[in-house]
Amino acid sequence: MLDFSHRRVAVFIDTQNLYYSARNLFGKKVDFGNVVSAGLGDRQLIRATAYVVSTESGDESPFFEALQKTGIQTKSKPLMEYLSGIKKADWDVGITVDIMSTVDAVDVIVLASGDGDFVPLAQYVKSHGRRFEVVSFRETTASTLLEWADSYINLSEDKRKFLIGRSRQPPVRMTKGGEALVEKDQAESLPENMPKPRFAKTEDVQGSRSRRLSF
């Protein structure tokens, strides 16, 4: 049996993506500590970073502290609100830059997100001879992203491990095309510290089972 314990791993968590996926699919919160542990496996953790959004009220501080207690570093940026009423706090560029600057120092990049916008980043990581692995909820994960993943963990397959709290709302509805829809009353009840979610279309739900691939 091959020994992969020497592999150096960096985990990057798109907090907003996982938070809203868990909330709108199952009405629960994410156990980020278990997410990191699952993505790491028995390998060597170099760093685990969660990208979060802060507000002037500071209501999200307990959440940030909970992440830090599990050993997860946090990077925060303020929520921007424009005169039009639009709220925005997009971490895609920040996550991309950090992964690009880290790729030469590790053997494996683990991305906790289902956002298909990260496909070019996956291509970049693999072009540098590194493993690119994805951890996410399959229902809100772009199939194009999984096509580039060397390994995938579907958090929806073990809800007891990766979700915490009582269900607070019915599951999200899915269109025939595989697009997750957020009910109007649900969207309006989302916390102010994050913009409204944007879910990916999942054209190929057949690949929903977790898989582990090795070189």
Give the topology.
Blueprint: E1 8-14, H1 15-26, E2 29-30, H2 32-40, E3 44-54, H3 61-69, E4 73-78, E5 80-81, E6 87-88, H4 92-102, E7 108-112, H5 119-127, E8 131-136, H6 143-146, E9 151-154, H7 159-162, E10 163-164, E11 173-174, E12 180-181, H8 184-188, E13 211-212
Parallel strand pairs: 1-3, 1-7, 3-4, 7-8, 8-9
Antiparallel strand pairs: 2-10, 5-6, 9-13, 11-12
Cα separation of the termini: 12 Å
- What number of domains? 1
SSE pattern: EHEHEHEEEHEHEHEHEEEHE
The outline comes out as globular
User: Could you list the spans in which at least 5 consecutive residues all have pLDDT below 50?
Assistant: 173-193, 195-215
Coarse structural class? alpha/beta
Radius of gyration from CA coordinates: 17 Å
CATH topology: Rossmann fold
Instruction: Count every helix, treating DSSP H or I runs of 4 or more residues as helices.
Output: 8
Query: What name goes with the CATH superfamily?
Result: 5'-nuclease
Relative helix content: 25-40%
Count of DSSP strands: 13
Oligomeric state: single chain
Beta strand %: 15-25%
CATH class: Alpha Beta
Report the CATH architecture. 3-Layer(aba) Sandwich
**Overall pLDDT metric:** 79
InterPro entries: LabA, NYN
GO molecular function, one term: RNA nuclease activity
Protein name: NYN domain-containing protein
